[in-house]
Design goal:
With 447 residues, the protein is mainly α. The chain has one domain. The protein contains 17 helices and no strands.
Length: 447
């Protein structure tokens, strides 16, 4: 049961440098957890799932973040807001915020030293990602994170001493991961372990403190509450979009569940910041899209990159995304919303193939909620691709393997259900949906 904690600890020990073997440990650990859940998970209770999930979060707290330096930016953004300034209007190296520096975030730049930076650079996208004077990545650009994430950073910063560095955020992320385990376990303890015991969750929550775990909580809560309280579900989905923009991709799945309220919640979260800093509220988002290849398609869509040049790749990716949205919109009335959200989010990740594997955290939660463990192949592939950064063909093949794995699993399920004609019991009452296993065999279709 504690394999997630063991795998997480192994990654913590070995991931000081980006090498292959820590990612292999992560992949193997995730597969083993999945097999154990599938084979022995039927008798699990809510309590044991949640307790083991809590134990899985412990190893990550013993180390500073290892998969990225994002948590240092989170700490800084929260600190800036507590000082009465907007992280959209200042960059970390700005000398006007020098009094907020400390040895944890700025080991090479004391408050009484000058960085030479004032204001926001004219072309921040051209600046280097790292600066040896600080642990904050992209210290020459304003923040990219949406307002709900910024509010979360501020609350955590309020209760975290400066000397604790990222520990407050790591603890908060670990607690969120455990809370999400409980929420999933109330629906189905067996599949909740797929999230709560996952080495990926152990690594990216209590260690890396990635804010994506908060987005996963909001998405899951939105799906769970959508049948009985559709307006609340829409608000939660809008809040998830205010943590990371990707959850807004799920709007087509909520076609009959007040998507306008979700968009309104998302927009409303920006209003205080717009009033404070105007168009600066976009932060580094435009520069990020350019740096990461979203604008020309050059460094995204790794699967399409195996076959298409950058200019065609971007167009095809857009067409596929629109087709997926239309399909989700069409099937939203007949299929369980958890299932629709799962394949929609997973397919979007396969099209875009983000460089950063923690973007897949919400997909793990949705896979657990929809009882579709094959989709875990997508975030697992992202870690292997992350270790292959700079090798475009290898990255594309890794993501293609994940896509084929998902397609193969769904095809096999369809064939088994079609041959047996099985139907299954309803989903737990508080989901408002019927379980896939009691639905007709069309649930096995590839989607």
């Amino acid at each position: 049961m504690a394999l997630a904690a063991v795998a997480s600890a192994a990654v913590v020990v070995g991931a000081a440098a980006r090498q292959w073997w820590p990612d292999v440990v992560l992949v193997v650990g995730s597969v083993v957890v999945g097999l154990l859940v599938w084979r022995f998970g039927r008798g699990l209770g809510v309590g044991i799932v949640v307790v083991v999930a809590g134990l899985c979060q412990v190893p990550g707290l013993t180390q500073a973040p290892i998969t990225s330096t994002d948590a240092y930016r989170y700490v800084w953004d929260g600190r800036v807001q507590l000082s009465g300034h907007s992280p959209y209007g200042y960059v970390p190296l700005d000398d006007s915020l020098a009094r907020l520096r400390d040895p944890v975030l700025f080991p090479g730049l004391a408050p009484d030293q000058r960085s030479g930076v004032t204001g926001i650079p004219d072309d921040p996208a051209q600046l280097p990602v790292d600066d040896v004077r600080t642990r904050i990545n992209r210290p020459g650009v304003p923040t990219i994170y949406p307002p709900v994430a910024e509010a979360y950073f501020t609350v955590v910063a309020l209760f975290t001493p400066w000397s604790a560095g990222t520990l407050g955020l790591q603890i908060a992320a670990g607690l969120i991961a455990i809370a999400l385990t409980w929420l999933l376990a109330v629906q189905n303890p067996r599949w909740a372990a797929l999230w709560g015991w996952s080495p990926i969750v152990a690594l990216e929550a209590s260690n890396a403190a990635h804010v994506d775990v908060l987005a996963a909580l909001f998405i899951t809560a939105a799906v769970v509450t959508t049948a009985r309280r559709p307006k609340l579900a829409a608000v939660l989905l809008g809040a998830a979009g205010g943590v990371k923009l990707l959850p807004l991709l799920l709007l087509p799945a909520f076609r009959h569940r007040r998507p306008v309220v979700a968009l309104g919640t998302f927009i409303a979260s920006y209003l205080p910041h717009v009033l404070a800093v105007g168009t600066l509220v976009l932060g580094f988002l435009p520069g990020y899209l350019n740096q990461e290849g979203f604008e020309d398609g050059s460094s995204r869509s790794a699967i399409l990159a195996l076959l298409l040049p950058p200019e065609a790749r971007q167009l095809v990716a857009a067409i596929l995304a629109l087709a997926l949205a239309a399909l989700a919109f069409h099937r939203a009335r007949r299929d369980p919303i958890a299932l629709t959200c799962c394949w929609l989010y997973g397919a979007a990740l396969l099209i875009a193939t983000p460089t950063y594997p923690w973007y897949g955290l919400p997909l793990i939660a949705l896979a657990a909620l929809a009882s579709r463990p094959e989709w875990i192949a997508v975030p697992l592939a992202s870690y292997l691709a992350y270790a292959s950064f700079g090798h475009d063909t290898r990255q594309g093949l890794i993501h293609l393997t994940a896509a084929l794995t998902v397609a193969g699993a769904l095809t096999i399920r369809h064939q088994l259900v079609a041959k047996s004609g099985l139907t299954a019991p309803p989903l737990p009452a508080n989901t408002g949906e019927r379980d896939e296993t009691h639905r007709p065999s069309n649930l096995g279709r590839l989607r």
